[in-house]
Amino acid sequence: MNHLYCRLLPFHVAEGAWNMAADEILLQAAAAGTASFRLYGWSQPTLSLGYFQSSVASRAYPRLGELAWVRRPSGGAALVHHREVTYALALPPGAPWQKSGESWLRRMHVFLAEALASLGVTARLCGEGEEKKIDDVLCFLHQTPGDLLLDNAKIVGSAQRKQRGALMQHGSILLAASPWTPQLPGIRELAGANLSVKTLGAAVVEQLAKQTGWHLIASEWTPQERQCISELAASKYTQAAWNSKR
Questions:
Q1: H-helix or E-strand spanning residue 90
Q2: How far, in Å, CA of 94 to CA of 103, rounded?
Q3: Among the listed ranges 16-25, 100-109, 185-194, which one has the minimum average pLDDT value?
Q4: 73 is in which domain, residue-wise?
Q5: Interatomic CA distance for residues 115 and 207, integer angstroms
């Protein structure tokens, strides 16, 4: 039996430009055949916009204009990265990493639900016919089938980008409400659970390995990757040509 090996990169806190550049580099590595998974944080409260979103409309909302912001390489709606933890999964093209007809958005959310269940928090997937759109801007106010819900509120939102058949999926796990988006309750408010990033991260990694059978190998970014991330952050994700393109 052939084992599948996936890099497990260390938890890292960085500014938005670095985080988005890092996820793009993960996608490039996946296109070259290397699978990777990482959990990360943001060095300051940050608004991330989906690739197709209008920057003017999104930042016109009360208080959102106060935040640092960056445009993601993936689609979807706006996320406020504060009192949350973000994950990124990058997979090479085709089988066995990606199977025809398989939704990794849904599959990853199942894993996250199992991780939360192991910590005493019962979440569920939004079902077909349950779609609810309260807002055009904020991701967590648009519930679609496969989203992860807790007490009928969305607590995980994910988005994808593909390149040469490779897949990069990243998403936000809402630990608690942010003062910038008080209308969005997190796990703390909904379940009374004050989960730490370390505790939740360990549970997520455990479930990812258990549910997939992959060997998650603790790894570091290569020196070349670090250089590419820094260069991409400076040349793309800090630039108005990218962030204000819409």
A1: strand 84-91
A2: 13
A3: 100-109
A4: 5-243
A5: 6
Banded pLDDT at 188 (limits 50, 70, 90): very high
- Are the beta carbons of 123 and 113 closer than 8 angstroms? yes
| Distance set, CA 95 to CA 3, 50, 92, 101 (Å) | 13, 28, 8, 11
Q: Are 182 and 88 in contact (CB under 8 A)?
A: no
DSSP 45: -
Sign of the CA dihedral 171, 85, 113, 96?
positive
Number of domains into which the chain is organized: 1
Side chain identity at residue 35, one-letter code? A
Contact (Cβ atoms closer than 8 angstroms) between residue 30 and residue 89:
no
DSSP string, 123-155: -EEPPTT--EES-SSBGGGEE-TT-EEETTEEE
Q: Which residues contact 127 (CB under 8 A, 6 or more apart)?
A: 145
The 8-class DSSP code of residue 173 comes to: E
Of the chain, the end-to-end C-alpha distance in Å amounts to 48
Please check the confidence at residue 1 and state whether its pLDDT lies above 50: no
Nearest Cα neighbor of 85 from 158, 31, 191 is: 158
d(CA 221, CA 204): 20
CATH number for the domain harbouring residue 144: 3.30.930.10
What phi and psi values does residue 84 have, to the nearest 5 degrees?
-150, 175
